[in-house]
Specification:
Elements (H helix, E strand, L loop, with lengths): L1 H23 L20 E3 L5 E8 L7 E6 L14 H4 L1 E6 L15 H14 L6 E6 L3 H10 L4 E7 L11 H10 L2 H12 L4 H6 L7 H4 L7 H17 L13 H11 L21 E6 L7 H10 L4 E5 L12 H11 L12 H4 L1
Parallel strand pairs: 3-4, 3-5, 5-6, 6-7, 7-8
Antiparallel strand pairs: 1-2, 2-4
Helix pairs in contact: 3-4
């Protein structure tokens, strides 16, 4: 009888474990925007070929009168409600901001992948009649969408600026570099990124469990930022709160699975292309692709950006010696980025080290 009791107990524990694992791989469905009694839709939207909707916001000069048309891709745990440069009016720019799939007022995409994020950008540009070519500005997590666009829709791009773009530690990096940069990460970040890559179906469960500490980077905790970053971001958040622009819950209002989890698992997946083998989309020199990086960035490490830039000599690499991950929010940096993207030449008003690649 005792033996049977032990068997029953083990079986019960195993059954509970199986039930937990099964439930963990089946995250809650996203909230349906615009449904009766559900979340309201607060932005104009366009319908894509697969029936999903993308929410957008226009800033600067109306596109009918604009000299330049640019699409801005937001970062992690963020939305389209962003600003970037003071030059939009002066240079005649129509700046288009949009919520990425699963974020803000956008529909979730259960088939979301690297390629679908690129085709979302292309279909948005077509729906809003931006023309054959448009400029692209991508920050932080939005950086992987930039690489995807450079790979899948290079013929639609007039220029691309990747600002502190997120990196994948499962790209084909040199072993010594991988050990160095991955080893610099907080152990909580290492565990979280490993799970995102190796067991993506369990990532939502990992992110929502309370037994073990989760990545400070994914959580957006103070430890993930430099002192300068935190000072810049604190001032920015205060200003946004005072203007009523900041709503921290807006980004993930459909649930973290369709927004944060999909971001992280796609970034750290095994990509179907190698960014360092992308062909120059502007062999005639009629466009600019640039990477803008902070040397002190604790979220995205400069060593990987330098490696990518060395492999792609047609990419213009800029490194700010004192900046962290909040590089684009530093005074004047947004103007520098936009100036080089559109005019081919930065304003040169900041201590940017474009020669960093030659220093090694």
């Amino acid at each position: 009888m005792a033996a049977l009791s032990k068997v029953a107990m083990v079986s019960a524990v195993a059954l509970l474990g199986w039930a937990w694992a099964y439930q963990a791989t089946r995250p809650p469905p996203p909230a349906i925007l615009g449904a009766p009694g559900g979340l309201p839709i607060a932005s104009p939207r366009v319908q894509l070929k697969d029936g999903r909707h993308l929410a957008y916001m226009e800033a600067g000069v109306p596109k009918e009168n604009a000299r330049y048309k640019a699409i801005f891709v937001h970062g992690f745990a963020s939305t389209k409600e962003s600003g970037f440069s003071e030059l939009v009016e002066e240079l005649g720019i129509c700046m288009l901001f949009f919520d990425r799939a699963g974020y803000g007022d956008n529909d979730a995409n259960p088939k979301r992948c690297l390629k679908s994020d690129a085709t979302d950008v292309e279909e948005l540009a077509d729906a809003l009649q931006l023309g054959d070519k448009f400029y692209l500005v991508d920050t932080s997590m939005g950086g992987y969408i930039a690489w995807s666009c450079l790979n899948y829709i290079p013929h639609r791009l007039a220029g691309v600026a990747l600002v502190v773009p997120a990196v994948n530690y499962w790209w084909p990096l040199p072993d010594n570099m991988l050990r160095s940069v991955y080893g610099k990460l907080d152990s909580r970040d290492q565990r979280t990124f490993w799970i995102a890559h190796h067991t993506p179906s369990l990532f939502h469960a990992w992110l929502t469990q309370r037994w073990f500490p989760v990545s400070p980077i994914v959580r957006g905790e103070r430890d993930a930022f430099t002192d300068m970053d935190w000072e810049i971001l604190t001032k920015l958040w205060r200003k946004q709160r005072e203007s009523g622009q900041l709503d921290p819950s807006k980004a993930t209002q459909q649930g973290i699975y369709e927004s944060l989890c999909r971001d992280v698992t796609i970034l750290f997946s095994t990509w179907e292309f190698d960014p360092t083998e992308i062909k120059n989309p502007f062999p005639g020199g009629d466009g600019v692709v640039s990477i803008w990086q902070g040397y002190e960035d604790k979220i995205v490490q400069f060593e990987v950006q330098r490696h990518v830039a060395r492999k792609l000599p047609w990419v213009r690499y800029h490194e700010h010696p004192e900046a962290g991950h909040a590089l684009s929010d530093m005074d004047g940096v947004g103007d520098e980025i936009i100036s080089e993207l559109l005019l081919g030449e930065a304003l040169r008003g900041l201590p940017l080290q474009s020669e960093a690649l030659q220093d090694e």
